[in-house]
Design goal:
binds FE2/S2 (inorganic) cluster; mainly alpha; disordered C terminus; about 65% helix
Length: about 90
């Protein structure tokens, strides 16, 4: 057993690492979910593309996070036509 106390920086880094995981059941990180968020408009499609929502909780935990990311994407697109163009260009 490791009895070494962890530093505040190490603790912060662990918390950040956990926050970057969108689907806790499957260990799917934000970096894998973001391209699906960019390409899709609904949770079912994001789940199909990123592999989220199929773990033990069946999307109970990651579903709300994905929904929030989709909402933010839609808000950004409706507020800024430049972002809308960039997003639709990158889907090709
Ligand atoms: S957190 Fe994604 S399926 Fe449970």
């Amino acid at each position: 057993m490791n009895d070494d106390p962890i530093t505040a920086d190490e603790k912060t880094e662990r918390i950040k690492r956990l926050a970057r995981v969108v689907c806790i059941c499957k260990g799917i990180p934000l970096g894998k979910v973001l391209p699906a968020i960019k390409a899709c408009d609904n949770i079912a499609d994001v789940n199909r593309m990123a592999g989220t929502g199929t773990g033990g909780c069946k999307g109970q935990r990651c579903g709300p996070r994905i929904k929030m990311l989709l909402r933010k994407k839609h808000e950004l697109q409706s507020d800024n036509p430049k972002i809308r163009e960039t997003t639709s260009d990158s889907e090709e």
